[in-house]
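Notes for week 9. Today we move from apo structures to complexes. The key idea is that a small molecule is not decoration. When we ask for a structure prediction with zinc ion present, the ligand SMILES becomes part of the input, just like the chain. The input block below holds both the sequence and the ligand string. Read it once before you look at the output, and try to guess where the molecule might sit.
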Amino acid sequence: MLKYKIMIDLSYIWIDFECPECNYQDQIQLIDIKCEKTIYCNNCKISIQLEDNDASTHEGIETINKAFDDLNNLFEKFK
Ligand SMILES: [Zn+2]
């Protein structure tokens, strides 16, 4: 029996982002935060230094990975 796992690279997931200056809504990738990239608001043109300060993105990824693990375990039961 072949084993399979659901794998998703969450680093490239797009998330909503709101400019702290003008509240303009844009989208950034999770990896941009992890790399603490400097981005520019498309509306007011300010530069925003992304910070992964409290490691919340890592925590979020772990939560999602846990959910996928549960899903994988569920599939195991049907084999
Ligand atoms: Zn802005």
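Residues 10-55 form one domain.
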